[in-house]
Amino acid sequence: MNQSDQGADIRLALLSYIEEDVHVVYSPALDLYGYGNDEFEARSSFAITLEEYLSYTTKENTLLADLRRLGWFVDPQTHTVAVPLWTSLLTGNEHLTDIVTNRPFKKFDQPAHIPAFA
Fold it and tell me: What is the pTM (predicted TM-score) of this model?
């Protein structure tokens, strides 16, 4: 992740899978989803969900607390954030464990920007 005075650039691991004929894109690190009739629609839906999440939590000044709740390392003094390790995510997330053990899925990374620290 790259740090700057305007926030942090990170790479989010996303999973794409199909559930009951609906394409899903899921971020285990943020516990956010996007849905669609195909993967393109699901990715577009996820992008909107991510934008709304970051906008709302930044506006409400709850972003850093929510990232901590999700297992992220957050240090507002050094403006450092780190996505949780996969081992941590798998241990604490039954839905993620179900996806990776019982369903066909694709994993891909997407760049994301965590807004400036307050």
Answer: 0.88
